[in-house]
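SEQUENCE-TO-STRUCTURE ENTRY
===========================
Question of interest: how does this chain fold, as expressed in backbone structure tokens?
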Amino acid sequence: MTSAALDTSWTHTTVLLEEAVDALTADRPDALGGTFVDATFGRGGHTRRLLEKLAPEARLIAFDKDAEAVAEAARITDARFSIRHQGFKNLGELPPRSVTGLLMDLGISSPQIDNPARGFSFRFDGPLDMRMDTTRGESVADWLATAETQQIAEVIRDYGEERFAVQIAKAIDARRQERGPISTTTELAELVAGAVKTREQGQNPATRTFQALRIFINAELEELQQALEASLSVLEPGGRLAVIAFHSLEDRIVKQFIATHSKEVYDRRAPFAAPKVMKLRALGRVRPSAAEVAGNPRSRSAILRIAERTES
């Protein structure tokens, strides 16, 4: 690990802190002694606030596949708390109907973005890595060195909603042929800027490409779908689910998941049979206040969706 990776000067402002914690705990005095899960520990803002609210007999289990997040979690000495160095796709390993409240704060934390050694941001020159878990898996640089041009275009289009995906992929391939693989964030950002002819005002041309490659290399949407499905198993009846999403792809998955499981399903082949009972009850959505957005611009796209497990 580089010296930059060990720097602890990067700070993180937790988005929708009170709103997310309240979604799991407010008006639930009998639930505060249960088992809660912070499925994406990050830098622990939600976890620390939850621990302040929970009863002495409660348990709080966190998940995170980022080794730096796990190191930060080691600073919490509360006996009610434990962390697993795993992604939240492993939620299903928890006992069925054992969780009282489940929080997922999606995306990446400010320390990950602001640390050049992690390679998440086009604003800093660093190795083109972008792995959430740097102890395993393939970096973006490694993948771009060998991926087919068509596959690169599909990833950038599908995960970044980038209309210039084909042009960017061709530029990456041409660069590989002429000078070898791309190895730094600056190299990729400059290459994308040359391939993208127009962009929304105030947005860097590389924004969508970096988002797409990060989501793909970490299998973020697939892991989210796995975690949501696991929530139906691990949440106890009356247990709460709260999910904070930061871009349309992940929010669409959360919205559709809650909607699908909040409806009674009728079998058209057996019109007189009782419908399958809904598994969730949608409790609404919350956006950051104007004051929070003013104080933390990175919160502006956040959407918190809340649901409750039914008795079924």
Remarks:
- The longest strand covers residues 235-245.
- The domain at 3-110+220-309 is CATH 3.40.50.150 (Rossmann fold).
- The longest helix spans residues 165-179.
